[in-house]
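A note from the maintainers: we've had questions about how concatenated examples are separated. There is no special marker in the raw files; a new sequence line simply starts the next protein. For clarity in this README we add a label.
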Amino acid sequence: ACLGECPQGAITIEEKAAEEFDEEVAKLHLEGKKPTMEELPCGCPSATVARFERQAGAAPSVDTPQQPILRHWPVQLILVPPTAPYLQGADLVLAADCVPFAYAGFHQDFLKDHSLLVACPKLDDFQAHLKKL
């Protein structure tokens, strides 16, 4: 809040002799201040890169429940590292993350021999995705 007038003499400047700055000592001091992060023996399973091998076989009949064709994880664009092995030389399907829920034959119609990335065009950070792609 404003006092209405500046009080005189409220702040004074004092000059004192100080030791020469030692960058190494400062670095050592700051190292001791860093919080240590305990590494857990686990991690977020959805961020672990994985490949799934599917055995070739006869196409399922109409009465047989559809089998997923997805061959890798994760699929969310924000979680996939650009160095993921399943992206190297891959034919890529980039889909809105709601599509597999709305399109019953998504796996069978789009994922055979393709790698999948999903993102939300409405809610995700488009610029971050564009930079990653």
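[label: protein 2]
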Amino acid sequence: MGTMRRAACTGVLLFLFSCCSGLAGGLETHNVPASDSQLAEALSLYAQGLCFLDESHAPTGAATAVSFFRKAAAVDPTSAEINEKLVETLVSLGDAPAALAAQLAFARHQPASAKAWRRVGNLAVKAKDAGAFAESIAAQRALPPAANLKAARRAQAMLDADEVIGWAELGRDDDALRAFERLVDAQAEALRAGDDRARRNAGAILVLLAAKRAADGSAGSLLAFADKLAAVVGDKAFAAGVYYELSAVLARGRGADPATVARLCERALLADPSRHEAVMGMVFPSPQTLRKLDNAAIAERIGGHPRPEALDYPFALMRLNYLLEAQDARAATAEYEKIKAMLAAGRDGAADSPVRHVLGSAALDLAGEREASVALLDEGLAAYPHSAMIKNSLAYTLALLERDLDRALDLVDAALKAEPDNYAYLDTLGWILYKKGDYAGALRSLISAVEREQDPSYEIYDHVGDVLVKLGRAAEAPAWWAKSYRITPVDSVADKLRKAGIDPASLRTP
């Protein structure tokens, strides 16, 4: 019956599609409304809304489009296409509560859709709505498991991780702790079996620990749990990552215990000296302090490791990562030259990895040597052809150079196939689409990145502002640039703010 209804409306649909170029791509199949007339009405309202997103209707077009999308959703509350456009537009307007309300209404009409409920959870965290988040988790747990055991296990691991992350970000530490305990118990077998997805999801514990932040004297128990998790997994590289991340989390917390941070750092280095994660906060309080410390002094600062010379290479990678965060091009380039020399000399602890290529290319790019940056990433891709990290970095660099954009698109598509929810990769996709002139597609990808981001990135917000300008929604762009500048005060963003009549200095926290 649904097929016949859709066929009966073909003429209406084609007519509506001719109203506005933004309709390319068609509608996702869904449960249709009660009558042909209702379907036609929903499509008509949807088409009118899309037309108002055209740049000729800026700057109020997006708000007008929302009103049409709301009406369309009221007529056909089961349309994934209408709902997605409504939610996407509300997020682009910065109205997280309204976006959540729309997504929640859609999910309640599609109770068996894990994707719909997961998006509710993401938006609930953005909107700081604990009730909606709890409903999202409960709805997902009520769904029947996948027939494939491996797929079911991965889906469960993702849900467990989402729950820990969500409660922690909502400030519900007790709920996060309970969810975390369930995650560990449920995923122990998968972790031991070496399931890569399970290992990545186990990283959600770090968000929980960030919420705890050495509060109420729990730092000691966190150290004990890190030891337990490392033993369960039985993998040195994974254990090192856990220890490093916990040390960084605790170092950033109020009332951090230096002894616990030091022990975590020491365990990380003993587990895997080639790990590069930079322990920031109280360990490396500023780029100026970092540059004044030699390897022995740094080793002493993070726990007095007995063999500091063997740690030259991992410490150099840590310094490079930190200097890149500080946007210090000269010092970052010099540090990368030291890293290359250590590798060439076969220094103890020096081992090549995708990370070296990505950090090195970032240093070259920061210094304005983008051709050299591309060459290094191409070299890395030849050595590590399955590295999503390298594929993404190369794709983004090509986009910055505005060349080989089709290749860049293929590279980031491959990276997203490996990690579909990686917000940095979604940002890269958005920027490539921007460079190719697909501004609507770019905005969709960038808004997806904003929804999924774990650590605020100034580039994503900067990119959203630029895309909005191209879409004729320039009045909305300064708010996004302001968010970008608050995260990292970059000169290029400051220039855009000044042109928009905003003093960048007024945005910096004293």
